[in-house]
Amino acid sequence: MEEIFSGRGLTLLIQIKDHARGIESTDKSFPAAIREMIKTANAIPSLLLRDREECCAGLTEYLMSISARNGLDVNLQQVVKVLQGRVEKWRGPR
Question: How many domains, in total, are found in the chain?
Answer without folding.
Answer: 1
